[in-house]
Fold these 3 entries.
Entry 1:
Amino acid sequence: MKSIMFYNSKGGSGKTTLAVNLAAYYAKAGIPTTIVDLDPQQSSMQWLDARPMSKPKVSGTKKFNKLVKRAKNAVVIYDLPAAIYGNKLTSYIKKANIVVVPVLPSPIDMKAAKEFIQSLRAMGSVIRNRVQIGLVANRCRAHTNIFLELDSYLLKEKGIKYVTAFRDNTNYLKSARSGLGIFEMGEAMTAQDREEWKPLIRWLGIK
Ligand SMILES: Nc1ncnc2c1ncn2[C@@H]1O[C@H](COP(=O)(O)OP(=O)(O)O)[C@@H](O)[C@H]1O
Ligand SMILES: [Mg+2]
């Protein structure tokens, strides 16, 4: 079983957006997929509510400890709220094999991401060695200076993988409204998004 957690201490960085899109991708690939929505705002659950019955099933729960029996190839995706720190964050991170940190290309967001990475490193070697951390830049407008700054900042962080960058684009608003993922929308319309997803999907692997 693979356990993937989306976290950033800042709200609005794209945790939910990426969590639900990844869930849709795995479900479409025939993998039993569950979203654990730990955010009181319940945005992932709202996406699930909007999801058409005809689409591959994504299970959802609000309970952190609910899942007991899971298939070997199952994927569990945790959508965390912002501003979780200390013991609570540690107890969440303990459940993860992989933590994906979406970062917006702004100085404030980069600083927050840096602090979060430092707090992960302070959690002790057991967690540090067991959990892989991947950063993804989100809502980028390519070729702006701030994007280049984020790019070089992310590349400098040792032991942290800079996986991919997602553009700012309205397909994600459509995804949120319709309960669909990028990979379930028109191919021509989402061609660039699919390219941007490839490195993350490859890095996460399927098993
Ligand atoms: N790559 C993107 N392009 C356009 N809009 C995005 C993108 N990523 C996220 N958004 C939008 O930004 C807002 C915040 O994203 P969300 O995933 O809810 O963040 P978080 O869960 O970290 O608080 C939402 O309205 C979402 O639709
Ligand atoms: Mg959210």
Entry 2:
Amino acid sequence: MYLENDVNAFTLGEKWLGEAKEYQNALCVTLGRGVGVGILINGTLFGGEHHGAGEIGHMKIATDPDAPLCVCGSSGCLEAFISNPAICNYVQKRIKDGSKSILQENEAITISEIQQAALSGDELCVKTYKRVGHFLGIGIANLINIFDPEVILIGGEGTVVGNLIYQEMKRTIHRNAVYGLDKEIQIKPIDFEDNLWVLGVATLVVQEIFKVSI
Ligand SMILES: [Zn+2]
């Protein structure tokens, strides 16, 4: 398993050219098709002994028998609640169960339709993203309690709804970070679209370093 996600490239890009430039201890969380975290410790990317570090998407946040299944084969993983495919499944199910939405029952509801509906105030989709913010906040509070970094950057194509996620996320982090650590740690959303070039440059360099296709 070598850098099959692009979160490490995103993290190096932010360290070299972006928002993590001035920091030595940073976490870069991405939300989209999956959920991942790039870990910078003392200015160096920490990949783990087998390049498997940073799989925050498979952090267990539920253990009850009804916990949603994850693509990894387990259940109750963070990703099974907040990845783009998980959000699409959740919204489809809620509509099927009778929740009101401007979206129609349709097996092929796309994430961008849900994002647009949320941004235009659709009740179900707004609630869905608050729920995403809550679970993302749980994951990030767990990271804070383990790493106590200087800064946490949050990006990825799943974050285009911005504050619909971030308000609830920050509330949840505040409730769950120990010693009030969240007050000391900067939590910065990154405009992913604006940073694609950074990601592109970093990806090329990382491919060169590891000689793998990402
Ligand atoms: Zn999983």
Entry 3:
Amino acid sequence: MENVIDLSGKTAVVTGGSRGIGRAVALALAGQGAFVVIADRSDWKAGDESTTAEILRLGGQATSKNLDVSDAAEVDRTMAEIDQEHSGIDILVNNAGVLTAGSVLETSNDQWRHQFAVNVDGTFFCMRAGIRSMRAHGRGGKVINVTSISGLRANPGFAAYCSSKAAIVNLTRQAGIDYGAEGINVNSVAPGFVETDMTAIYDSPTRRALEAQTPNGRWAMPKQIADAVLFLASPLADHICGEVLAVDGGWLVGTPVRIESD
Ligand SMILES: NC(=O)c1ccc[n+]([C@@H]2O[C@H](COP(=O)([O-])OP(=O)(O)OC[C@H]3O[C@@H](n4cnc5c(N)ncnc54)[C@H](O)[C@@H]3O)[C@@H](O)[C@H]2O)c1
């Protein structure tokens, strides 16, 4: 039988791929044959435990680049390097992100700017460089931006984070319609609550409350987000442009509170 997701011969760049969702995405893409470039600001798990080492151990192909996605010049330089070294970029996953808690009154100028510098500027800079490479090689491509349910609905006390993720939603839609005709599919995944270092800020009561508000009653594991990214990175998604795919256990669809009636 034909393997419907065969990414062999493709080069994929995953920003923020050293841990959490990005690590799971890198492993998933490499598992289907892609050569994965992990572009991250810091190697959280260095050496034998790094994402690159794990992919190589499993028989896949990977390398890493030190990259701060909020630095436009560094992004252009690094993406051009990847383009040259791999004869083009086929898949780009803009996953790098940071989360700062705070309502409008609790958010400082620096916090606001940092959220936007990494989450929005970073996505924009990498997307621009990635699409430039895809266009130059003329074989299309897939861009997947990691937004959040917080980009589609307000999340109490996260003014800057929610606003930055909302910007990614419309940036995705915009690029989705601008480049679809060139065979470059730009889409997003919007994860719900996922078990990663980022969500370690939630204490147990908050966590239980959030689980109770999720129709399927649980948080996602990073691999479940990676599976959705894999789908959008594959030819199965060739006709999907500018879409935002929620992977949230039904959180955006409705609350799991059932009103009993006689
Ligand atoms: N965990 C969740 O519940 C959840 C929910 C919705 C959306 N998301 C989004 O998913 C993405 C990944 O989140 P995660 O939970 O794995 O978080 P994480 O904190 O575990 O990982 C984030 C990664 O991004 C990297 N990064 C941060 N700033 C960077 C920069 N300037 N340049 C390059 N890399 C940088 C970090 O080094 C890290 O490897 C983020 O965009 C996040 O907003 C997460």
